[in-house]
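Batch job 17 of 40 flagged for manual review because the log was empty.
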Amino acid sequence: MLGRDLCAALAQAGEDRVTAADRAALDVTDASAVRAAVAGHDVVVNCAAYTDVDGAEGEESRAEAVNGHAVGLLADACASSGARLLQLSTDYVLPGASPEPQPEDAPTGPPNAYGRSKLLGERLLAERLPQAGYVVRTAWLYGEHGGNFVATMLRLAAERPSVDVVDDQHGQPTWTLPLARQLIALGRSALRGEAPPGVYHGTSAGRTTWHGLARAVFAEAGLDPARVRPTTTAAFPRPAARPSYSVLAHDRWAEAGVAVQPYWQDSLTLALRQPAFQELVAKARG
């Protein structure tokens, strides 16, 4: 989802020397394959991840291999070649219990196995590539390519008279296209020597709940938002614990000379005009 939007944004930005490797082309857990793939590149953006949050509870070693140890391999390869590494991470490395937006230097404390695996990747990057490693934590991603909450809400709108959505988890819905553009800006700033290495928070401005996002999706699609009913996390038990407050602060972007992402609802308005979402909107309207 993010990788495809990143490739599109790179093309729009005039970056014509880009190598895009999917899972078939590159196994990020293979050290020799990673070294060969990284060689000759100035910036590496790692969008690869084990993203099944609930599945990680029973497959933590597998999640660690992709989200943790593979990042160490990429960091080693970048250290050898002189490349900068932009590593995508998650809000789930934080406890998610604070009532205020969490800064980039907030104490970590993952609430689940997925978060622990991503935190391992962050730590290996900091250890092995301290001067050229960039962690970009993001959250609540949606986009045209791949499964995501926004697409699911539109599909359910076509199938059900109403939907129940949790209203006690707070976060920042983040469209992959503005995130991709922000990553490009960070990579360029890093190449100029202007972006300090370390952690950045790559989420939309503002905040809402899953229920608030679902209502906004219905409203933007011309559907009745009252069809979205609030419920609680306890009503939908999941194997992995979810944080109640995943709102991230964006203070470090100013140090890199990079703009923060737009307000989440403004991004949603633009995202739903994209072809894949327009098709889902049309079906939801019947």
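Reviewer: the log was empty due to a logging misconfiguration, but the result itself is present. Residues 2-285 form a domain with the Rossmann fold fold (CATH 3.40.50.720). Unflagging and moving on to job 18.
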